[in-house]
Amino acid sequence: MTSIGILGAGRVGTSLAGKLAAAGHHVILGRQNPKEQTAAPTGDIDPRISFSDQRTTARTADIVINATPGDSALDRLTDLRTELAGKILVDVSNATRDTDGLPGDLCYPGSSLAEHLQAALPDTRVVKTLNTMLFMVMTAPEILATPPTAYVSGNDEHAKKTVTGLLGDLGWQSAWIEDLGDITTARATEAMILVVPHILRRHGFKPFAVSLAR
Questions:
Q1: Phi (first) and psi of residue 30, to 5 degrees
Q2: What separation in angstroms does the CA of 107 have from each of 31, 112, 141?
C-alpha cells in the first residue's frame, strides 16, 4: 500500500491517519515539534501509525497531506520544497484569519491557498479536497443524513485519480466526489468556509458538509 505522510497532529491529522491506517496504508504522522502531543490519547492511536518531524515525513512519504493551519501553511510548506518535489500534496486546510475561535476572512481573497501552494511548489502536484466539511465527516461521510460532496481541484489528472482512490479508502462513494477541474477551482471551495461560522453559531459543533444537492 501507499506510504502517506500527514503534516499536522491535530484532530484533522489524527482522524485521517487512523482511517487511512485502518485501510492498510503505512501512515507517518508529522509533528512540527517532536514532543508535540497528538489530538488523541496515545492509547487511541493505531499502532500502524508512526511519528516523525514534518521534514522527515515530507521526505519519506509517497503522498503528503497538509493538515496544518491554513493561515501559516504556505510558509511552512514552501520551506519543504525539496522534500515535496515529485510528490502529491493533498491540501485539506482553509486559510482564514480566525476570530473568536471561528473562521474569519479569507487570507487569499480572489485566489486560494491551494493556488499559492502550487505556485510555490512547481515540482509538486497539489490537490485540494475535504475542506468543505467538519473534520469528522472527512473520515465518516456516511454519518450525514444527506450524502455529502467531496470536491477535488488540481492540475494533474493522475494525481486527482490517486487522491480519489484515497477518498474511497476514507469511505467516500464515487457518486459523492466532484472533480471541479484545475487548481484555480479551489478558490470556490475555499470560499465556502465563509458560511461555516454562521452555521456553527446557530447549530453548534454538529457534523455537516457544504454539498451539492441533485
A1: -95, 120
A2: 24, 8, 28
